Amino acid sequence: VPGFGHHYQCNYHLHRLLGIGAGVGINTFIDLSFIPLYANLKGYFMKTSASLYYDLNIGYGFVLPSYHLDSQGGLYLRPALGVRFPSTRAAHLFLDFGFNVQFATAQTMDWNNNISSYKYVFLRSSLRFGISF
Fold first, then answer.
1. Residues 132, 50 contacting (CB under 8 angstroms)
2. Which of 25, 39, 90, 123 is the most buried (most CB within 10 A)?
3. How confident is the model at residue 73 (pLDDT cuts 50, 70, 90)?
4. What are phi and psi for residue 46, nearest 5 degrees?
């Protein structure tokens, strides 16, 4: 499903293999947009500056107003695997690949005033590139 997303998250690393945090963002899927609030788990597999890592977001996506009569958000997930590139400073470039999964329900009305209810499961691959501090 094509779309767009932008996120901000903060993490605290308890250990190289486990960091915890929280995040917020905005995701669009075809005709619905969501603001996901989520918890984040992240860990680095290697002790070096460059490392492979896992990243998991789990939370709830709140739906933004749309043309639907009634719409409700639902569970939000984003599992990913990535690479942190080497750096001699505190900032690192990273690249990861994952999947955005968003559950939702919505009701629409057609031209004959018939109301239809839909349950959505939006699934989209995700390629992220950014800077971590």
1. no
2. 25
3. very high
4. -120, 155
